Amino acid sequence: MTLQAKGFVDEMRMVSMRLHTREQAREGEKKEVKGPQDRSVSKWDPTIVGYLRFLVESKLVYDALECIVDKSDFPYYAELRNTGLERSEQLGRDLEWFKSQGYGIPGPSGPGVNYAFYLQQLSAKDLPAFICHFYNFYFAHTAGGRMIGKTVAEKLLNKKDLECYKWDGELKQILQNLRDKINKVTLGWTREEKNHCLEETERSFKYSGDILRFILS
Ligand code: HEM
């Protein structure tokens, strides 16, 4: 019997799971619990204003990621277009919905702008590092992000289903398609390039964490 060679995405996932606490995810290994966002989402005490800030900042990051892969001349980036995971439009609709309910939409306050700027710079010069952020940001939203969305909807929004938690088609398949694409893009990478990509994971958690924290502010 031959063993199926695992793709690079499995390595990326392993590194990411090491940066989760046990409270966040069953497979999490991070010991240090630094703030409330490291605790189980069910124990979170979110606020609508904080959640709106989180959505506004997140949209800036999705705008950047989606603009980069749409506009870039690099053939690699073309592979990452139309994955079905794009969130910019959906977040725009959600923010409109909040507006229609009488909520004031906050302006950008830093972390999303910083992250978007960093991604723009990275995309032009460092594909392995960029792919790390691309993978982590989209997958985080479909895993922990969905848990957060559910908790906020239950606690604060009368179970309203926001657009950013709806995907066209079966999410499981959409995620698998992106894993396959990333495995394809990274197939020819050297070990150095792969390690460089994996080393960027911590920074990706740092940038996302700065945005996530808003929910609890
Ligand atoms: C996977 C929770 C933050 C990236 C997961 C899983 C859970 C989870 C439960 C396992 C999903 C599964 O395999 O079924 C959380 C919680 C977070 C959080 C509660 C914060 C409160 C983050 C952050 C990132 C991230 C900040 C990176 C920016 C990922 C990735 C996976 C994952 C890449 C693998 C997804 C997959 O293979 O489908 N997370 N997470 N997570 N998370 Fe997080």
Descriptive overview:
By secondary structure, the chain is mainly α. The N and C termini lie far apart (53 Å). The longest helix is centred in the first third of the chain and has 24 residues, at 48-71. The protein has helices spanning 8-18, 48-71, 75-78, 88-100, 111-125, 127-142, 144-156, 171-185, 191-199, 201-212. The protein has one domain: Heme Oxygenase, Chain A (Up-down Bundle), CATH 1.20.910.10. The model has no long low-confidence stretch (mean pLDDT 94). The protein is globular, with a radius of gyration of 17 Å. Bound molecules: protoporphyrin IX containing FE. Protoporphyrin IX containing FE binds at residues 13, 16, 20, 24-25, 37, 41, 136-137, 139-140, 143-144, 147, 175, 204-205, 208-209, 212.
Task: Describe how the helices and strands are arranged.
Blueprint: H1 8-18, H2 48-71, H3 75-78, H4 88-100, H5 111-125, H6 127-142, H7 144-156, H8 171-185, H9 191-199, H10 201-212
Helix pairs in contact: 2-4, 2-5, 5-6, 6-9, 6-10
The chain binds protoporphyrin IX containing FE.
Protoporphyrin IX containing FE (HEM) is lined by residues 13, 16, 20, 24-25, 37, 41, 136-137, 139-140, 143-144, 147, 175, 204-205, 208-209, 212.
